[in-house]
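Hi Prof. W.,

I finally got the methionine--tRNA ligase prediction working! I wasn't sure whether to trim anything, so I left the full sequence exactly as given:
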Amino acid sequence: MQNKRSESDLCVASNREQSFPSSGNDGGIRRIGSYHLRAFGEVDTELVPSLAMAAGRALLCRPQSEVVSGEVKTSGKEETFVLTTPLYYVNAPPHMGSAYTTIAADAIARFQRLLGKRVVFITGTDEHGEKIAAAAEASGSSPSEHCDTISQSYKILWKELDISYDKFIRTTDQKHEAIVKEFYSRVLNNGDIYRADYEGLYCVNCEEYKDEKELLENNCCPMHLKPCVPRKEDNYFFALSKYQKALEDYISSNPDFLKPSFRLNEVQGWITNGLKDFSISRSSVEWGIPVPNDKTQTIYVWFDALLGYISALSEDSEQSNLQQAVNSGWPASLHLIGKDILRFHAVYWPAMLLSAGLSIPNMVFGHGFLTKDGMKMGKSLGNTLEPMDLVQKFGADAVRYFFLREVEFGNDGDYSEERFVNIVNAHLANTIGNLLNRTLGLLKKNCQSTLPYDSIFAVEGNSFKDSVSQLVEKAKYHYENLSLSSACESILEIGNVGNLYMDKNAPWSRFKQGGASSEMAAKDLVIILEAMRIIAAALSPVTPSLCFRIYSQLGFSKEQFEAVTWDDTRWGELRAGRVMAEAKPVFAKMENNQDGDKKGSSKEGKNKKILRQGLVEA
Ligand code: MSP
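And this is what came out:
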């Protein structure tokens, strides 16, 4: 691959690492270190900081706020937690891989809200570029019609999956375009954009030039297994190489920036190998944001889309402006991404932000892939799993729970329907659902569905409460560290401990004995129901609907459930006299396909499935 600067547009220079560019204009030619670049249009230099200042200031932006495990503590203000999913390409409707990041982000957002923070949960769609234009053409619609349709399909899926996002940004939104242009101008005015010829192998699916060394036989992209195409273009480039030292320093002095920690090694490896400038415009792509003052080029889709994390922060009602968006919550506390887009988020994006004088996000977490037969599930490979089918068949809670519990967050995970059904039945229907159901059944039979004791009194002198408290603490620790599977495991363990307790104490026989035994049995029921309430509060980030149904069965209203905070995972909320609702299964057992197939496609079989689903939704 070659990166040739065109001499007509800029002067070739040497020694570029040695000095940061000056910001002064020089009769149309900007003198940048030992480079001479043409000035690219009118930029308000008052607005734009010099590169040296920008890099320094961005790093120095921090002292006003203290970074605590991925969140920003702003003195005297409500704590804000801004988290983002990637903005999804709209070349095709969402698949389970895209849904996975969003489900995880939603669980984290809900957990942070339980902690009492002001959460801004950002998601959206990435709608420009060659890949999208080609998809629109193939579907016989205009790019904007195509984007409207696919973007909408994401919103529909998020609704079905109970995704509680606060902002949905589309990169075709006007406010976004204005902010991208302003950002571009800042970087330009910092002397970090120059024009050059580029020749290399391009993967349209990755929207990225590839290094030949990374490619498989026939120049195939290892991710998409499709040949990369040779391209030669005259583009604008971003001077990434200038930020080599700043990035090295940032990463080594912010050990929590990249998670899980094994991703850090990968990123450090890229940086140490030497950062190359990358092209940030395309002359051959019409479907994009025009480069300010050069209508012959559009802004490279990544240089455009990453800005969505900032433009999402601006209010729709406001005249969009970069600084105002930044003031509304930047930097993000957490970017949640898949490992394939780590380089863009851990290298390109921080350098772009430094160049524009903006703060770097607190944390980038690169999760693994959902795979099918060991290959990344993806739209380009066509080996996807339809999340809508899964939700319609099994319900949102089951889908959310399975992927968060089954896949260690950060690692890859394979899907199998058999495993899906087994896990969800065992954990949600049996451990949690049955325990609640049989306890409520006993309470109805023996105590008219009314709690005879305060839970705090019922548990006096009993170590059960301590076991629950320890497990809740563990769950909190895991949530905070984004170990979502371990958080689920700790909460489920409360259910296991509860089932063991019931089996050991057998309140059904104690009730028969009467007297003091009966009193002990009544206390046991209160203890289990309080544990169920705690499970519901703690698991609500993962399975919100199921947890609401548990709360309802325990006699709470929707408003009361919505007001739950992490403090409610403490023992003692259930009081004597509370009347429980009619016991209904909160989570119906699912059949796996094989069972369904055995029943054939008879009407009876189908109706049974629908009935079961109805029960789940009750
Ligand atoms: N548009 C870019 C992101 C721009 S962010 C400013 C993009 N889009 S994508 O639709 O291709 O991918 C979005 C996310 O989905 C990525 O984090 C990617 O890792 C994730 N996944 C896509 N397939 C996946 C799996 N099979 N498994 C898990 N996540 C995967 O990249």
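The pocket of 5'-O-[(L-methionyl)-sulphamoyl]adenosine is lined by residues 86-89, 97-98, 100-101, 126, 305-306, 308, 337-338, 340-341, 369-370, 376-378 (CB under 6 Å). Does that look reasonable to you?

Thanks,
D.
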